[in-house]
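The passage that follows is intended for readers who have already worked through the single-chain material. We present the inputs for a multi-component assembly, then the predicted structure in tokenized form, and finally a short commentary. You are encouraged to pause after the input and sketch how you expect the pieces to fit together before reading on.
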Amino acid sequence: MARPVNAETDQHDELRALRGDYAEKYGFHDDRVNVFETKRGLTEDIVREISAIKDEPAWMLEKRLEGLRHFLATPMPNWGGDLTGINFDEITYYVKASAQAETAWEDVPDDIKRTFDRLGVPEAERSALLGGVGAQYDSEVVYHSLKAQWEEQGVLFLSPEEAVQNHPDLVQEHFGKIIPYADNKFAALNTAVWSGGSFIYVPPGVHVDIPLQAYFRINTANAGQFERTLIIADEGSFVHYVEGCTAPIYSKDSLHSAVVEIVVKRGARVRYSTIQNWSNNVYNLVTKRAVAYADATMEWVDANLGSKLTMKYPAVVMLEPGAHGEVLSIAFAGAGQHQDAGSKMVHAAPNTTSRIISKSISKDGGRSTYRGLCKVYPGCTGVKANVVCDALLLDDKARSDTYPYMEVEEKQVDIGHEASVSRVGEEQLFYLMSRGLDEDAAIGMIVNGFIEPIVKELPMEYAVEMNRLIELQMEGSVG
Amino acid sequence: MADMATLVIDDLHVSIGDKPILKGLSLTMKQGERHVLMGANGSGKSTLAYALMGHPSYDVTSGSVTLDGEDLLALEPNERAKLGLFLAFQNPKEIPGVSVSNFLRQAAQSVRGEKISLRDFSRSMSANMKQLDMKPEFARRYLNDGFSGGERKRCEMLQLLTLAPRIAILDETDSGLDIQMRQLVADVVLAQHERTGFLVVTHYEDVVQQMQPDYVHIMTDGRIQMTGGIELAERLTAEKSWDWVAEEA
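Having made your guess, compare it with the prediction:
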């Protein structure tokens, strides 16, 4: 564990000073005239328009149209969270705020730059703790950079639009192969209208040993953000990708529906960390899936703090022996929030292993759901899989549900599952308060302790940020 | 010693639910004094400890408690801690994921109301841990999580040394400990007795002998029935029963 023992407490005083609310820290918006936006609602013309703006080859337009047809023909999912509040005709599917993606901060338009300044993005880049930074504002990536040392080793960290233009073979080989458009209604929607996201390629044997970060920001009211991310880690390589997301607080809802596809080749390792902190008017419906080949490792570290409703189940499909999948997830549901999150582990080869650790915290009537699948195909002997899901309820109105699905079609396997639900106890609170902590600080300490096993997996700055966000949530001031 | 803090408990009545437990308990103690409280199980010793610290389930129905003239009963437990009151728990709760050192530093900062630099804190914690014969790794363990009975008590003593209270209540901190650990608890009391007033709840005469208290109080049925010196503890050991207290009180 690289984190100094006192990272949490060092933060505490800072936190006291920082107890503004989400509205102040993240909830602001820029009143700006966008360069371009499509008309509200979704039609074939709009899909063609988006494709034309991006000057795409015909094959990509064809994929978009396939996605659109499937989207229109597919009913809304009737499981998970309540999706009836989404009106597809009211959403603006493409909003371009800036003329192009820049590679120097000076060139980013001032108001957009100010937004990311307030969010601390350029600061993070300068801190030398990141290998590269991407920033997306509404539909388009407005800034992208990769440190020279990685560029020299052949690492690609681009917007997917650039990848379509300059690396079409790689894109065509993998785009929509891990998550086909027909996977679900929202994957189809993303395929039709995707814009922005990240494209990463790490050549064989290259270890990008500091994280690449992407920051996603929705600014325009009632806009949808549909980024598309594709990561290819070639044999024996390593990359850690971190994404953060925030949005202003509007009275109308926004939709964020991303698709993330990851290929982890033989012996490679990818870690994908998300700190999702959307405002509480965002529907966050995301499909994330990785395929892992022989002896490859895929790790999802997934923290869901914001949004109105999140439905997200990062998946690892283990295709060859020795592959390992891991999901560490934290969900925090406050008033009016439903976090329906979990994981899918698909063991499609013998001697593959997986681990899921899920921690959820609910308060003020918030609802956390763990929904997970562990699947083992026949003949996949020697599989080891373990699922632990723990829920912490902070009051009597909060709710937690657990749906652990097991589809195990092989006998020679070792599958473990544990679940627990606990409440912050009066005795714990009294004990901490008797040592001078006020009630908020005492609850905050219990909550931070509860998520510690996952937070300690994050790089230190993110761990600190995570504790900070949790404290903000504890204040009940988010959204 | 004019600036020594004084805790005054006057005619304290405390109930749990509808059940009266303390029935008019009075006791005055000063910083720098060692008081031992002995009594049969159920006589209300732990109730006194919890009520003084402000546990929400203990209902003070009448009476008063002041520390240096300040009304303790009007304060939250954390505010009582800031005034210099400390309770060593009989069964301290586990707080998974929170390291001993993190917890202690945050507690010390809360009680003192000021930031303590990591260096100063680490230095004093190392010294305190050495005094208690604790290994440095202990600081990184999660608070009371998987601790043995002895480790829990040692950790309570570490908290006492760190927070340096003016008045400390030890609620059977020595229960379930072997003689060596009981000696350790007594050593802490002796080492701290000049800056802290101690109210030590115990069943063990050997602990009383080691601590050399200024006062021994015998409690039955929610009140202090007798106050004397160390000879009361000796007599308890000799009599092997509480009957004489009722007869002579």
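Commentary: Residues 6 and 337 of chain A are 31 Å apart (CA to CA). The mean pLDDT of chain A is 88. How closely did your sketch match?
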